[in-house]
Amino acid sequence: MRLTAKERILLHLLESAQPTDEVEVSAASTQEGVARGAGIELRHLIQFVRPLIRDGLVHERTGHVTGKRQRMKVYGLTSAGHTSAIRLREKVKTQVVRIRDGDAVREGSLREALQEVGMGTTLLEAVRQVQEAGILDLELARRPPESKYVEQTWDAPRIGTFVGRREELSEILSEDAGSRVFVIRGIAGIGKSALAAKACELVRGRRNLFWHRIRPWETSQTILAGLGRFLEALDRPGLASILKRGEAQLAAEVLRQDLPDTHAFLVFDDAHEASKEAAVVLRMLADTVASAADVRVLFLTRRTLPFYSRRDVALDRRVREIELGGLESQDSAALLGPAGNVAVLAGLGRRLAGHPLLLELIRTHHPWTSAALVDVRRFIEEEIYRSLSGPERTIMRTGCLYSVPVPREALLSNPETSYETLLSLQDQSLVRAVGEDRYEIHDTIQDFFIGTLTPNERSALVTFATDQLQGLASRASAEGDWASSIAYLSNALRIAESPEAQRALQEALGDANARLGDLLTMSTSYRSAMALTSDAETLARLHRKLAAFLADRVLLDAASAEVDAGFAALGDRVSVERGWLYLVRAQIANANTDHASAEADAANALQVFEHSDERLGRAGALLEAGRAAAWTGTASEDGVRRAGRRFEAALALAKALGDPTLEAQIHTSMAGAIGYGSGDYEAGMTHYRAIESSSAMSDLHIGANMHLQRAWFLLRVRRDHRAAELDLLEARRIALRTHDIQTLADVTYQVAVIARERGQYAEAGRLNEEAGSEMARIGVTYFAANAYFCAVHDYLAADDWRGYQRAVSALKTPQLRRGLKKDALLWLSHRGMEAVIRGDLPEFERAFAELFRDAERIPLGSSWLTIRLWVGHFYYSVALRSLGRKREADDHRRRALELTRAANNLQAMNIIESDFGERVAETIRQGRKRD
């Protein structure tokens, strides 16, 4: 039994929330309350709520919430929604489920069970328990546990009978100081997973639980993604955040900081399946857990693992190996059954070497005299397979193609099968329940049934299984669980037979890996898909997707090459892909500050999208066109107004699409255009308030960026240091949680701006040097060079020659020199100022002459001129002042002020009007005297 997200929302609003027409409503009606009650991640809630609103089932308004100061968005059922929810509730209550009442287990309807429970639980809570445990426990339902602990054990088997392993459990669960990393080794079916599952059961309610089964196709990124979701649920979003940003190289440091103090119990099943790349993550985890006193990690494996050494085991005792053998005779007897002669059962257990899987199969089939008792495969063939019914064989043959746990409906594909058939196979220990209402077949049993398939049977079953796995992957993707999506797609790819099916799966794998930020695996998948097709549009799409990812990571040359390859693949064909390629090229051009080309490419993209009625593409093209227009407009044409029209059109489309993330991006660009244009404080703040009240703020990256951009806006148009500092503090707080080094460096850079405006020049130099160093370390060379350029002059204003020498030396490194040359204005200003300092006056004049000559090519009144050229005039005036050429210096200082006033740049005006320039000139003058 499984409810869709929209169905859970309807039931939650019916059972838990107050009608939203009341003056004050409970927190259950808010976005957070609905997301929590319906079991949906907050960031995905809006995509499920909007269709309900559109269909007239749910309405939304802003209202007062009990215990909250600010008005919030709240939801309630419309009249039609209330009727629909009641019908749904009655339908769900008729569902037949397994019910445990004490020691007795029976089947009955949810209605009957809820009547017995009384007011102890809601319908949604009962459904959730059935999904998680496969059964409704009346005792638990009467007193639902309120655990503060997180459990992500979707891959863990649900154990029934468990015997023995007392010493192993005692050692694993010991809280005494000792090994925290356990490697449990043993042959297939020896009970490794059962032991770990029992350990999880015993620590449940005392530890946070995580279980991950490693498969052969796993990469380091997919393992980290699963662990990232677990830590995110513990309010430690750092690992998930760095993966999203494509910074997996920071994972070791993030884990060292975020994993301790989580009281986590981690299990990695089938660790022997880990590739060399994935084994790096296992080593990373072992190293981290070894120094985290409250964390335990179990690696379950069939053979020795390569990521630790004998020294780790014998000398350092960082790793504890447990070699799992067969059960003791008395435990074998207990597993075989409570009835019968104990001595006979114990003897049988010894004969079978205490092998739990074989003992379990014997217990459920009772072939006491079979000659096949020493071999699992022979036993299945001679004692089990022949006795299976037709429907049972069908389920087993279908299930043997799945390498991942799958929902019940995936196994019950054939009309002749039924839930009773599945229960029968569970009772025979051939199928086992895993996690939340999913099932799997043990590897050993799976291998046998794969061998029974004829080619024709396999071909027919593969088609169905592939479709099922693709559907499961789509569902996981919709829920933002990209690691699970990759698992389903990889399973499908392993069994897919036709080239077209393989091509589609490779593309989908590329898409999912892109969402995990895994450039290498994504690129490999897309390239593999390209090799399987000659279709021009498909090739263009694959090149475009790769280009978009590369552009997002600011790998602009590589992205341009992929765009060119996409256009070459299309040739003269009419295709919507042409529009997407133009759009990516516009994004690349904007990133390269080639705004005229960006505007032209965006216009071409818009023309294609309008002809094909592609609304998302139109919104993206309008956004890029607006960004470009804000920089390329002239005084006569008013680029800001032109940009504004494009932004407004993009925003209307984003709202119609129900895409809050795109809306936030557009609002940010609109506020930025206002900051560089009219400087209208209220208009700009309207956009920031729209972002702040949006559900997009649940994305921590968007939240940090909003605070960072608003701080800049406040400094530029208001010089409001206090308000800007509050935003910078919040951006820094989020960046520390998400380990976002670039945002932390950006915050430091803006704090340096505030220090300079307050006349704290030495502090400004130190902060800019710190920001530049961090940006250089992570490869953001242009911004690093900009920060060091500022540090050079801050130190000069503070008469700090040592600081000046450090900053200048940094700018001489090849990396930062390249970064500085990306901005001709800064590069030529730096060349000119350095020439003055060392007394090379001809070079000084050449540098600034080149700067102003280049500026003449910029259209009069363009945004780029008014925003940036003031820097050249200002530093030229400072250099002239240091040479005693006061009249010329005053002329250029006045010109710098005119440009900043035209651009409403209060921040720059403050620098020009302060004593900053005079102090820099005086330091240079004194330095020249000393020389």
Q: Quick one: biggest sheet? A: 6 strands, parallel
Round the Cα radius of gyration to an integer and report it: 33 Å
Structural class: alpha/beta
- CATH topology title of the domain at 151-325: Rossmann fold
Percentage of residues in helical conformation: 55-70%
What's the architecture of the domain at 151-325, going by CATH? 3-Layer(aba) Sandwich
Strands, total number: 15
Major sheet: arrangement of strands = 7-9-10-11-8-12
Average residue-wise pLDDT: 84
Q: Globular, elongated, flat, extended or rod-shaped: what is the shape?
A: elongated
Number of helices: 47
CATH superfamily of the domain at 151-325: P-loop containing nucleotide triphosphate hydrolases
How would you describe this structure in keywords?
931 residues; alpha/beta; Arc Repressor Mutant, subunit A; Rossmann fold; three-stranded mixed sheet; 47 helices; 65% helix; elongated
